Amino acid sequence: MEESKNTPKRPERTQIMTPKEAAKYLGFHLVTIYRLLKKQEIPATKIGGQWRFKKDVLDAWLMSRMSK
C-alpha cells in the first residue's frame, strides 16, 4: 500500500512523548529537558534506555510549578 504525500511518516502521539516532543509541547529547549531529567525535576520514565513523558503527567507537573 502506497503512502500519500500528505500522510505523516509517523502518527502524531498525544499521550506518550519523546524528549524532543515534550520540549516542543512545553515550549522548552531540548537541553532544558535533559537538564531537568538529570536533576530528576521533571516526571519521566526510561523505557528501553530512552526517556518518555506522559502528556497528562507533564500537564499536572507544569500546573503545580505555576502555582508556586
Give a description of the structure:
- This protein is an alpha+beta fold and 68 residues long.
- Helix content is 43%, strand content 15%.
- It has three helices and three strands; from the N terminus they run E-H-H-E-E-H.
- Strands 1-3-2 form a three-stranded antiparallel sheet.
- Helix 1 (19-26) crosses helix 2 (30-38).
- The longest helix is centred in the last third of the chain and has 12 residues, at 55-66.
Short description:
This protein has one domain (about 15-65). The chain is built from three helices and three strands.
Taking all residues together, what is the mean pLDDT? 87
Low-confidence stretches: none
**Computed Rg:** 14 Å
Number of domains: 1
The major β-sheet equals: 3 strands, antiparallel
Tally of helical segments: 3
The sequence of SSEs as H and E is EHHEEH
Question: What characteristics describe this protein?
Answer:
three-stranded antiparallel sheet, globular, alpha+beta, 3 helices, 15% strand, 68 residues
